Amino acid sequence: MSIDWSKAPTATHYTPPLDDSGMWVAVFWRKEGNHFPEAWQVDDDGNLNNIQRPTVVKESLERMIARPILWNGEGLPPVGVPIEAKHKNAQPDWARPGFYETVIVAIGKQLVIFEADGNGSEKVGTLSDYIFRPIRTAEQIAAEEHQKAIDELAADTDWILDRASCEAVIAAGYRKQVQP
Q: Which residues of the chain have pLDDT under 50?
């Protein structure tokens, strides 16, 4: 299920329709503390009907989906948000080098607790030893791979080709073939 949060920009929660009967329609909610001062009922045409001080029933509370928290990479990541982390001094024999996807379970003044390998276990690290960033998009990954290919070509030619020439060669479809 894909939720279009842009329809209700101040909504904090969403309740999907219960069935196709029309009795339980989709609703966006704005939650403040333990109260819901505002809601937007989604009609059959996708239009929103604003409701002030709506009545919240148990069935809606049980099915509510919280709006995902977005993190732009500024400051520390919020708890519970999927991110990429990297230990600053990782060595392959004791820590995973490079960035890897994880979820922050808790952050203290000096320590951070991560989900480890998605198997329910956790690991603890010192905050100052890690670099955090938002999970990259497919476009960002492709751009990084493109830049890496250009850099590798330049290095393979002992920098005889300048960067613009390497970019042109890669754009023309050149890919390094590894000798068997």
A: none
